[in-house]
Amino acid sequence: MLSRTRTALLLGFLVLLWGVNWPLSKIALNYTPPVLFAGIRTLLGGVILLFFALPRIKQLQFKKTWYFYFISAFLNIVLFYGLQTVGLGYMPAGLFSAIVFIQPVLLGIFSWLWLGESMYKLKIIGLILGFIGVAIISAGGLSGNISSIGILFALGSAVGWGLGTIFIKKIGNAVDSIWMVSLQLIIGGIFLLCVGSNMENWSSIQWNIPFVSNLLFISIFVIAFGWLAFFTLVGSGEASKVGSYTFLIPLISIIASSIFLHESITIKLVIGLLFIVTSICFVNIKFKQKGIEAQIDS
Question: Which of 51, 75, 20, 22 lies closest to 191, judged by CA?
C-alpha cells in the first residue's frame, strides 16, 4: 500500500503530465505529420516501458493471450492516440481534450451495456449532462467557428478509449498489466508507423531540437512513466482516486493551452466543461446500499 504522500505525488504527476500532453502534442504537429508522430511516440513509449516489463517475463504467456494485445492496441492506441493526434490539427488543444474527456461518461454507458453495472438515476442525469456539455462546446462547429471534422475525431478518440477500457476490464485477470500496456503501445505504434509511411513522408519531419525534445518528453514522461504511475496507483488499490481526479486533466489542458498556444477560453467552453465535469462526478458516484455514504467509483 502506498503512503498518502506518495499517492498524492503520483496522482499529481499523472494528472499534470496527461494534462500538458495536449498542447505539447499540438506544438509537435508543427514539425511532423500526425500519423507518423502518433506511431513514433507510442512505439518509443512502449519500448521504454518494456524495460519494466521484462523482469515479469514469466507472466507474459504470449501464445495464450496474443490476440488480447492486438485488440487492445487497436482500441487504445490506433483509435485513441491515432485519432487524437490527427484531430489536434483541426481544433484547439484545450477544446479537443475537453471533448475527448467525455470518455468517463461513455464508459458509464459501456459498463452498463457490457459489464452489467447498475444504471441508477444519478448516473442517467450525469450522462445527459455530459452530452449537453459536449453539445454546448461543439455548437461552434455547426456555425463554422469550430471544425466539425475535429469534433468527430475527438468523439472517435473518446469512443476508442472507452471501448479499450471496457476490454481491459473484461480481460484484466488474464494478462499482466505492465505487459498489456507495453505491448499495446509497441503493436499500435508499429501499425501507425506502417500507415503513416504509406500516407505521409518521413522527410516532412523536422528533426530539430524543439521537436526532438518534445517527442522525448511525451514518450518518456507522458506515455511510459505516465502509464507506469497509473498502474502503480491501480495496483495499490488507488483506482478510485485515479478515476475521481480524471476530470482535472482537461482543465489543466485548457490552462496550459492558453499559456503555451494562446488559445482563448470562451464562455461557451467554460459552461460546456462545467457540464462535463459535473457529469463525470455524477456518473462516478456510487452509493452504498444503505444510502448513508457515497464514494467515487473508478
Answer: 75
